[in-house]
Amino acid sequence: MRNIFDEQIKQLNNMLIEMGAAIERAIALATQSLREQDITLAEKAIAQDLEIDNMEKDIEALCLKVLLRQQPVAGDLRLISAALKMITDMERIGDQSADIAEITIMLDGKPYIMKLEHIPKMAEATVKMVTDSIDAFVKKDLHLAKSVIEYDDVVDELFIKVRADLIELILADGANGEQAMDLLMIAKYFERIGDHAENIAEWVVFSITGTHLKG
């Protein structure tokens, strides 16, 4: 029975890695489409969200199968429970990447009112957080999980900079207001992606220690 469980955990880890890679692609596509105002890339980011939704369902099905057939206890149960929580946050990251892509489509053909400097940096930071949080789960690396939680401050600080820049542009010219709100919403979505990656890392900590940091 233990061998079967170990094989299923290996399968779970591989599926989580694949879902994490799909999320990274979604964020990258959304960011590139925004930077280049490329509608084709934006549409690919939206399509990627559907793939992520299907991955969530497949992982959920595997977790439920393990829970019903293996009836894990203690650390094994925490591991499966954490995975179920993680994929909810991972799916929402896919949603928010698609939301960013949809705003990019709305802005098609409109020159940007500002240089996109801090927003791409937010995207890079969130990809790092997603990658590291999933690596921490697979490797059971408590230190790496905690470093992801701390790294969310980087995303928050970049959001504050974007917001300050946009407020300054609105004060300088009220005509900038509409696009400024769209760009602020994009920055907010990236901030939320960072929050979801932080949540994933907190569930990794729970899977290792049995303590949820926000519990």
Secondary-structure map:
Layout: H1 2-36, H2 39-70, H3 74-106, H4 118-139, H5 142-172, H6 177-209
Helix pairs in contact: 1-2, 1-3, 1-4, 2-3, 3-6, 4-5, 4-6, 5-6
Task: Describe the protein in words.
With 215 residues, the protein is mostly helical. Helices cover 87% and strands 0% of the residues. It contains six helices and no strands. Helix 4 runs antiparallel to helix 5. The longest helix has 35 residues, at 2-36. The mean pLDDT is 95.
- Named at the architecture level, the CATH assignment is Up-down Bundle
What is the distance, rounded to the nearest whole angstrom, between the alpha carbons of the first and last residues? 32 Å
Can you count the helices? 6
Helix content: over 70%
Element order: H for helix, E for strand: HHHHHH
Mean pLDDT: 95
Number of domains: 1
Task: Let me know the number of strands.
Answer: 0
CATH superfamily: Phosphate transport system protein phou homolog 2, domain 2
Characterize the biggest β-sheet. Answer: none
CATH class label? Mainly Alpha
- Class from secondary-structure proportions: mainly alpha
Would you give the CATH topology? Methane Monooxygenase Hydroxylase, Chain G, domain 1
Low-confidence stretches: none
β content, as a range? Answer: under 5%
- Indicate the overall shape: elongated
Radius of gyration (CA) equals: 19 Å
